[in-house]
Amino acid sequence: MERRPSLSRRALIGGLAAGAVAAAATAAPAAAKGRGRKPKKLVPGDLVVVPAPGGPSTAAAVARGTAILESWGLRVELTEHALDTFGYLSAPDADRLADLNYALAHPEAKALMTVRGGYGTTRIIDDADVEALEDHPKLVIGYSDITALHFAVADQTRIPTLHSPMTAWSSNNTDATAASLKAAIMTADPVVLTRDPAESTAGVEVPGTASGKLLGGNLSLMAAEPDRSNWPDLDGAILLVEEVEEARYRVDNMLTRIIRAGHFDGLAGIAVGQFVPHPLDEYKPGEWTMNEVLLDKLGDLGVPVLGGLKIGHDLDPRVVPLGTGAVLDTAAGTLTVEAAVRD
């Protein structure tokens, strides 16, 4: 693993937005430089830079993820404060921001894979130089607290990202999780996810088909985003939503706030991932289940909804691109997403 001092950077705004629906329409050509440009797929020898914009982890957990990346022939560089601990943050705001901006602007790295989620990205996201990606497009990889970064990248650059487990490799991840990550970063093949009847949200469904750009992520991070901040354009999009250890009434409250604010107006469809229950949110007869909460809030939006997707914080998750074209088909039980990378 390599460590380097911070680099200077410059960010230029330009180019054209790219985007298309995989398997449904012909893709619009990507700009040669600038907004919407897809990063290249990774090949052995490419560099992955690893900042920690949110919570802390351990050297052992990061080593597990690093070993997986290195087994594919990739090189890994931890940023200066990637293994630090500062309360429930990985490091003070200024240090996390400096590391994140270093990674965003890194001229050699082909991917930015965060250490973990936790909490803290929202504290620094307004000063994150995401537009530096337009000079040096690279995959941004993460989920959970990293939803704030996904939103900022989608809103400000439209460069695709990956909703994925992170370098601090969790015990929830499996060999299939690792295989889905490798395919998502090292091939330009579409990602096809199929509803798993064993997933708790498998019963969440509003029949139909939809196509549009896949955007979204963790519900609580979406709900925490200020209404005039980094909300990407969701008009005609398929929304991805997942959550972990939130009480049912809080899920209701967060969805209600977002819907009242109008952010879900114009959605084409909704893909529901894993909703891990809060251990203290004990169900009592007569109350709504989590699925009933989701159907109550999402079922009235007039769009197809497909649950049971292995995306999120529960066991055996899968990797999925964000910011590329997707097709949702509830009859087939599939979500097909265009790759985040190009050959």
UniProtKB/TrEMBL annotation:
Residues 1-27 form the signal peptide. It holds the Pfam family Peptidase_S66. Keywords: Carboxypeptidase, Hydrolase, Protease, Serine protease, Signal. PROSITE patterns: TAT. Residues 50-163 form the LD-carboxypeptidase N-terminal domain. Residues 211-326 form the LD-carboxypeptidase C-terminal domain. The keyword Signal applies. InterPro entries: Carboxypeptidase_A_C_sf, Class_I_gatase-like, LdcA_N, Peptidase_S66_N, Peptidase_S66C, S66_fam, TAT_signal. Belongs to the peptidase S66 family. This is LD-carboxypeptidase. It comes from Glycomyces mayteni. The lineage of its organism: Bacteria, Bacillati, Actinomycetota, Actinomycetes, Glycomycetales.
